[in-house]
Design a protein that fits this description.
Length: 246
């Protein structure tokens, strides 16, 4: 059917994308380390429980966050880079204040200030509150890029897995089906409705494309990508074949 082209995780929700070459998936769990942390806004409830994205620092409200890249070390320390800031390497367990000070200049003053770094619950801190992975199709990205009139960086959509070889919007045809990637199997469950986060350019940190409008005007919806639940554990790697098995 196709191949797995890219694997991304986002160690801190809304703050930094990290490209991986491989990962080991567990049944009923998100991509390991994905959205394992999140930064609460000061007006949000002070809890480590799952909360909707409006309560966190996210790209939808702070487009300059889109420029951050992340790297997770073997000691669980996270390194963040941004073109306007010196790199930061910190331990999320013990050096929360370093992160808050680093990210504060990138966050709009018109929004509530960063309050606290929280550890996500077991299901992660994905927007839908479920322990799933998000999947995008590169053919769909190219089709939407043509509609938008400029190339769209896949990091705009913060998907975990990018598939090559499907036709445009072919990932929607996978709803209700089980796919095999490498050693793992995933059940595709629902489409993902997109918000203003996708308007932000990961290179410039500026909103330069009205992506939701392009989706509505071109296709009659705001959906891009799908969610999937891991039903069989196993290792996946970039360039692995992807097949529908049920």
């Amino acid at each position: 059917m196709g191949t797995l082209a890219h694997i991304y995780r986002h160690p801190i929700k809304g703050i930094g994308s990290e490209m991986l070459t491989e990962a080991s998936l567990a049944v009923g769990a998100p991509l390991p380390g994905d959205r394992a942390w999140a930064v609460l806004q000061e007006t949000a409830e002070d809890t480590d429980a799952w909360q909707p994205r409006r309560n966190f620092l996210v790209v939808a409200y702070g487009p300059k966050l889109a420029q951050i890249t992340a790297s997770t070390g073997g000691d669980a320390r996270i390194t963040l880079t941004h073109p306007d800031c010196a790199p930061l390497t910190f331990d999320p367990e013990q050096e929360m204040e370093a992160l808050l000070a680093w990210v504060n200049p990138l966050w709009p003053e018109t929004h509530p200030s960063p309050r606290r770094l929280v550890r996500a619950p077991a299901q992660g801190m994905a927007d839908n509150g479920l322990p799933q992975l998000s999947i995008g199709g590169l053919s769909s990205l190219r089709a939407l890029s043509e509609r938008a009139g400029q190339p769209l960086d896949p990091r705009r959509f913060r998907a975990n897995l990018w598939l090559e070889g499907l036709g445009p919007w072919g990932e929607f045809d996978l709803l209700g089906k089980t796919i095999r990637i490498g050693e793992a199997e995933l059940l595709v469950t629902e489409r993902i409705e997109r918000c203003r986060a996708t308007e932000a350019n990961p290179v410039s940190g500026q909103r330069d494309v009205d992506t939701p409008r392009a989706l509505i005007e071109g296709y009659g919806h705001k959906d891009f990508g799908v969610y999937a639940t891991v039903t069989r554990a196993g290792r996946i790697a970039a360039s692995d074949p992807v097949d529908v098995i049920a």
